[in-house]
Amino acid sequence: MAKAPTPDEGFGRLLGLEVTEREDGRSRTRIEIGPQHLNPHGVVHGAVLYALADQGMGAAVYTLLDEGESCATIEVKIVYIAAVQAGVVECETTVINKGRRIAVLESEVRSEGRLVAKALGTFAILRA
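User: That's the sequence. What structure does it adopt?
Assistant: C-alpha cells below.
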C-alpha cells in the first residue's frame, strides 16, 4: 500500500478532519462540528461535508495503491439531504471500482446515524 498523506497535515488539519479507519478500499472519517464550520444560517457549510467526503475518498483509494502511486480528485458530486447544526459527522467511503488510471467511489455522510449527504467521486491514479 502506498503511504497516504494524513489529514492532520494541511487542509484536513485546518478543518479538524480525522481519518479513523482505512483498509481494503474503505475508509471512515469524522469531524466534530464547531462554530467555525457553520454558515450564516447556523448549519454546517456544505463545503465542510464535501471536504469530509473528499478526504475519505482519498483515504480509501490509498489503501489500494501500489508503492510509488498517488491519487488526485477528478470530480465529486454530492447531494445534501439534511442540515446539520452540531455534533459529530461521520463519513463512510467505499471504492466501487479501481482501474489502472481511475477509481470510482461513493461516500455516505451521517450525523447521529442520520444520512445527511451522499457523494460519488472519481479519482485519478497517478504513477511516479
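Residues 10-127 form a domain with the Thiol Ester Dehydrase; Chain A fold (CATH 3.10.129.10).
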